[in-house]
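Practice problem 4.
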């Protein structure tokens, strides 16, 4: 029996699709609710509960109800350890903080993003069809936010950049300039992986490839160096895992798109060239933002050396920053544009997730969190390289690409803002692929999962506790 997806696309049955996959509605809402704009005059949504966060809470509640009814997949001991270990490190960092009550909001946020949401995704996503539904939401979000960003650049209604309101930020506003860049990069990686997947219908691959090319423009107009670097790294890995011949075609298409956009139409050519050049000058001639970043990195390292085992406690970096940072640190970053007045935002994190974990949670937290991420990455890549889950190889490419993007971006950024909740979804998708259930060994289940994606057939009608995983 062939494991390939049928080449002919069959229109899914909408009502049947909804009935079969209704527990995934909160997951789709968690992603798509990020289309909602910030309230007028609200410079940042950091530290606030937004619509996507509320949807993620509903996702966790639905998962709990389904678990009580025996309608989720059973986690292996390794899965329990990888997904549950961060909770131990978070609890230790909270209890040993100088002010445990002040650290409590940080504990809740970290628990949401790195434990509860990933676990809910792993437990609720039952097969490849449902994985593809979740991944498709990322592309929809990216296309809409990217379109808003392009309009902002064209009409000079974006965030301020080099004295002009041309920076594409989507609906996230100038207080979260990484928000649009992040979600657009997610969509680009998903579309690239789907376009390269050998088992998907040709029509679907072509649509995915077109979406990937379209998303290059808003990503460029975000002027986010970290997002550019992370996207390039993740895309190269996805292309390498999908095959050299396919990779060369994608590289040629992306190069042609870049030449047309920047060279032919002159889209931000001078600003883009200057931004690209600045990447190579981060050591010899760093700008103020890079200098601030280096200073905060040094401060984070100093905090860790002071308390190497457990760190200064969750939410402890801002309170301890001035005692560890040098005089080279500026008072904040300037934000303006996109319908908001000028505001100077304080620098409250090191803009490096690994150093933030090290400074606030020490080695205990670093091993629990980063150790689990490393295990998921190695397991996911090995599964792809070994050719496991052939019928759902596109899911593996998507999960690995998104996870590598996130881990790379963590070198230049940390959690914060409305899009943070998507980090938990991505970790969950990566764990879904890297930690297959024992029931998924049979090839027929993998084939059924793929055919379900093409026909719209659900997987919820099977006996409780039995999951059709690739």
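Answer key:
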């Amino acid at each position: 029996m062939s494991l390939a997806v049928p080449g002919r696309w069959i229109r899914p049955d909408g009502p049947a699709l909804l009935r079969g996959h209704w527990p995934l509605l909160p997951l789709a809402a968690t992603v798509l609710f990020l289309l909602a704009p910030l309230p007028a005059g609200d410079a940042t949504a950091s530290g606030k509960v937004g619509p996507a966060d509320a949807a993620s809470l509903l996702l966790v509640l639905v998962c709990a109800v389904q678990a009580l009814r025996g309608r989720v997949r059973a986690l292996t001991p390794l899965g329990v350890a990888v997904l549950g270990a961060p909770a131990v490190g978070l609890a230790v960092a909270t209890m040993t903080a100088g002010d445990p009550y002040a650290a409590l909001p940080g504990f809740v946020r970290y628990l949401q993003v790195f434990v509860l949401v990933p676990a809910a995704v792993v437990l609720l996503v039952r097969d490849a069809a449902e994985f593809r539904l979740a991944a498709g939401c990322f592309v929809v979000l990216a296309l809409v936010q990217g379109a808003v960003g392009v309009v902002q650049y064209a009409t000079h209604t974006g965030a301020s950049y080099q004295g002009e309101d041309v920076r594409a930020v989507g609906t996230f506003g100038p207080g979260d300039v990484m928000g649009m860049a992040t979600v657009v990069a997610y969509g680009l990686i998903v579309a690239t992986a789907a376009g390269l997947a050998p088992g998907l219908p040709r029509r679907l691959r072509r649509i995915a490839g077109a979406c990937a090319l379209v998303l290059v423009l808003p990503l460029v107009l975000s002027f986010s160096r970290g997002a550019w670097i992370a996207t390039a790294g993740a895309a190269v890995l996805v292309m390498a895992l999908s095959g050299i011949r396919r990779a060369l075609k994608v590289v040629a298409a992306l190069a042609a798109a870049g030449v047309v956009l920047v060279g032919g139409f002159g889209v931000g050519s001078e600003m883009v060239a200057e931004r690209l050049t600045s990447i190579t000058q981060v050591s010899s001639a760093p700008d103020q933002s890079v200098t601030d970043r280096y200073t905060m990195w040094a401060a984070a390292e100093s905090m860790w050396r002071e308390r190497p085992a457990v760190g200064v406690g969750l939410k402890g970096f801002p309170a301890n920053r001035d005692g560890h940072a040098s005089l080279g640190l500026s008072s904040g970053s300037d934000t303006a544009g996109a319908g908001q007045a000028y505001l100077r935002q304080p620098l409250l994190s090191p803009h490096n997730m690994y150093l933030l974990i090290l400074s606030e949670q020490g080695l205990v937290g670093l091993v629990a969190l980063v150790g689990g991420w490393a295990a998921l990455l190695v397991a996911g890549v090995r599964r792809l390289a070994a050719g496991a889950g052939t019928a759902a190889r596109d899911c593996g490419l998507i999960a690995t690409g998104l996870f590598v993007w996130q881990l790379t971006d963590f070198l230049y950024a940390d959690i914060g803002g409305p899009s943070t909740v998507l980090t938990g979804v991505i970790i969950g998708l990566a764990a879904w692929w890297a930690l297959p259930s024992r029931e998924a060994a049979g090839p027929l289940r993998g084939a059924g999962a793929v055919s379900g994606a093409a026909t719209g057939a659900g997987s919820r009608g099977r006996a409780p506790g039995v999951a059709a995983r690739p």
